[in-house]
Amino acid sequence: MNNRKNKKVISRLIIVASIVIAVLFVFGIIREYLNRVELDNEITELESELVELKLDKKDFLQSIEAYQTDFYVEQEAREKFNLIKQGEKVAVIPIDQINTKDTNLNNEKNTVDLKSVSRSNAIDWWQYFFGDKVIN
Question: Which one, of 80, 77, 56, 82, lies nearest residue 64 by Cα?
Fold first, then answer.
């Protein structure tokens, strides 16, 4: 009888140990799966960053090529050193004339019909649907 009890206890211990080991394996597999998903996401982010960096590199190389063109050199010479080509004429416009013209244009743009501003929204909708029949 004692032998039978020992066998039952041992078999129960083996079952419990097997369950514990199985649970540990399941947790390990889940942890590795989550690590794999995280690594896949990081790889995807790094690949998209690589594509962006390649585009930036391409833009940078194109800008270097643009800086080396005769057109760019000519533009820089015109803007920074006030140089002109042979046969060109320069027109100089005084800044005070530009400022007065700008203020005149701004004054014209700022003048608003006061009737249209003082009307209510309901009157505007009435005109929209029924025409010029305005109720005052």
Answer: 56
**CB proximity list for 78: less than 8 A, separation 6 or greater:** 84
- Per the structure, the complete domain to which residue 127 belongs is given by 93-136
Q: What is the pLDDT of residues 38-81, one digit of tens each?
A: 999 999 999 999 999 999 999 999 988 888 888 888 888 888 88
Residues 85 and 21 grouped into a single domain: yes
Nearest 5 degrees, angle CA 91-CA 94-CA 98?
105
CA atoms of 65 and 54, how far apart (whole Å): 16
53 and 119 housed in the same domain: no
Secondary structure (3-state) at 32: helix
